[in-house]
Amino acid sequence: MSDAGKGNVVIGQSGGPTAVINQSLVGAVEVLKDSDDVGRIMGARHGVAGIVAENFVDLNDVDAAVLEAVANTPAAALGSSRDKPDEAYCRKIFEVFKKNDVKYFFYIGGNDSADAARIVNEMASASDYELRTFHIPKTIDNDLRVTDHCPGYGSAAKFVASAFMGDDRDSAALPGIKINVVMGRDAGWLTAASVLGNTDPVDGPHLVYVPEVEFSTEQFLADVREIYGRLGRCQIAVSEGIKDKTGTSVTVALAETLGHRVERDSHGNPQLSGTGALGDFLSDYLKANMKVPHESLRVRADTFGYLQRSFAGYASQIDRIEARQCGRKAAEYAMSGDLDGSVAMKRVESADYQIEYVRAELSDVARVTKPLPRDFINESGNGITEGFISYAAPLVGELPVLGKL
Amino acid sequence: MSDAGKGNVVIGQSGGPTAVINQSLVGAVEVLKDSDDVGRIMGARHGVAGIVAENFVDLNDVDAAVLEAVANTPAAALGSSRDKPDEAYCRKIFEVFKKNDVKYFFYIGGNDSADAARIVNEMASASDYELRTFHIPKTIDNDLRVTDHCPGYGSAAKFVASAFMGDDRDSAALPGIKINVVMGRDAGWLTAASVLGNTDPVDGPHLVYVPEVEFSTEQFLADVREIYGRLGRCQIAVSEGIKDKTGTSVTVALAETLGHRVERDSHGNPQLSGTGALGDFLSDYLKANMKVPHESLRVRADTFGYLQRSFAGYASQIDRIEARQCGRKAAEYAMSGDLDGSVAMKRVESADYQIEYVRAELSDVARVTKPLPRDFINESGNGITEGFISYAAPLVGELPVLGKL
To answer: Do B204 and B290 belong together in one domain?
Structure first.
């Protein structure tokens, strides 16, 4: 595409929101407002759905103080969407862009959003329509390729780490077995964050199960027995997306066993969050099989649910800053020349944690996701290594300092 | 009892921990360490269970920095207990006190703990044994009598309010019906706190159900239909302890319908936390009965679980201060003369929120609990009034400031 010249902007948010997704929105809007090349800045309500419905909110004149409050607000301020646009849907988006003289398209989301942006961009390209398209990464799952990590992950990881820290003290005070189910359909990044506050080998989580490792209920039982026998208690982190040896989600297999309908989103992904079924199942399984008198065995399960991505007032400071910067960078790239792509973070080799921002190709971010590397998981497949801790600790920032008697 | 003179101290923690229960422990220990009348300060591991087992930790020489870290740590640092001591159990406690020359007994807990303290104290009194007994209140349920509110409640309320704020933005971004199950077996204080961050009439929670109001699934359905029809979404707060018209817990009735064994603690209370069953049940009920096409109805349920009492790093500042002060006051009362009792907070009539600490009788705090007053619940029984907000807002302190587009 040739130079896009002055034109209008559409910016939207997509997929499961994060605690800092609005930082990216505000970062982009700040830069765009200052550009002479930009006309109207149109925020799409509910992502692609808002684009095809031409449901836009004018972002040119939003007061700076309101923008700042929005930046600090969890969840997509423009509204989000689970729609996965096909070719025809993308064609409609492109038609709306032409009609509204849209020359810049920013889409904040995960890998599916990068893919939608890629398709629309290719349509524009094929029609010689001047469009600059930038994907701005966000996901608590941390499963995007190319980028070192994803904006949104650090805040969710901070929530999970803090939750495990307090819950570990709680379950040390009233000992038993405590299962905590953490978000993560295919990747164990967020569940791995459960260990980040651990400062003592006897502290929980004592066992961590991620979707990257085949889950066996028999091995689970043996693992729990070993820890419980040794410490008199056991705190466990489980990804909602753990899969059995056939690759089937344990939650889905369980639901089907119980004759429940499994809800799927438009991406074909089964609905795993917003239900306590997996935790209750694992809890019942242990109660039935631990061979400890029922009365003396305390088993509890919590499913952390949507709080992991939406809890207000507890985002990671570094995550806030980086998410804002990813939004700014996308706008700067789009203003700087004939460029499309996604924003990625690259960790600079240095003593201290340091990031540089680079442009990635949309096609390199779209579709395929990035699992937790095997060397971040221990050999037994039920714990997390120091390698992961070195990687993730800077993204979370300061954690509470706890004491013991 | 006459003047107790120099003697040893036993201090213990009991029941469900809170985010600030260790503030009370540290407050008491600070005062006791400075007293010439006090010999050994013995922390009982796991409450009354640790007393009868003579499982004590020496608190005289704990470093001040460690104490401060412990104060800021959620959950009982000494360990907690669910034992409800009967007469024989209390006799054993009393024997251990005599054997160890214990002249001061501090028990941090709820109404059941106050009752255990009362029984032991009466045994001592009947035997002309010099014992000063103080109960130090704690409970996230806020259901103790006499005191204006309970240490631990403000922090749990802050967590719940912040969770609802972020979750409301999340469920506005991806609209549907969102049910959040909040702790509270008999009293709706904590569930009521779900409204504290609400700054706009269209924000959630749109419906609040507490155990004080008879729960009807039919009325629930009608309420949700009305809100969903009007706003296109609905965020709902439900106490885990909601009861049907027969006074039976909906969770218990549900479990029994499904043929599950209902676990009960030694107080005879059914186990309601640590399971997602109520949320899943209400969610399935709405999906089956809303008469909206399945595909277009998004219903999710989260059960906040133990995070409400144990989440690390997010306690209410005023709650921290008051919990510390309650511990200090108990020690000061016990040192000041022939006194037993519980510490209570009294709200001073003034423009600003202000508290004075007073002594209450153990018998006035023991056993009976305090429900949410009817005038804190709206007429329809599905919402919370301004009266509650005025009462509870100062206990929670600052909440995040969110923005909208």
So the answer is: yes
